[in-house]
Recover the amino acids of this structure.
């Protein structure tokens, strides 16, 4: 006999990403950008056109409020990093991969695609990496 499952609330009681988690992701992404050797201009575009002044403050540790779009971008970047760590046993190869032209990506490097500025570019790279590792 079929039994109805208890209904759940559509919205969780706690935010998906807390302010502390978002700030930790900012610090991690800044280190990741250093490893990827992306310019500040590229980093700001990847982050959705973040103002140069805001990015400079981030680099000094002054991280303000993170809105939903930025939190999503940070999450996608952490997922990209995770995917690269799964694919490459040598972390340096993963860090270098993002700057290399890739025929699967139309000859562009992943950084070139992510620098397009739109969130879908980040999602494209994340999805491709997930598919490559069978996730």
């Amino acid at each position: 006999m079929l039994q109805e499952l208890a209904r759940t609330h559509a919205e969780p009681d706690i935010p998906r990403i807390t302010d502390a988690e978002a700030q930790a992701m900012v610090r991690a992404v800044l280190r990741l950008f250093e490893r990827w050797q992306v310019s500040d201009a590229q980093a700001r575009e990847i982050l959705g056109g973040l103002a140069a002044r805001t990015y400079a403050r981030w680099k000094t540790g002054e991280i303000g409020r993170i809105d939903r779009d930025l939190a999503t971008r940070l999450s996608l970047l952490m997922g990209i990093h995770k995917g690269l760590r799964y694919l490459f046993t040598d972390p340096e190869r993963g860090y270098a991969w993002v700057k290399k032209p890739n025929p699967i990506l139309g000859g562009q490097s992943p950084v070139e695609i992510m620098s397009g500025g739109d969130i879908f570019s980040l999602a494209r790279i994340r999805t491709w990496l997930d598919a490559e590792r069978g996730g």
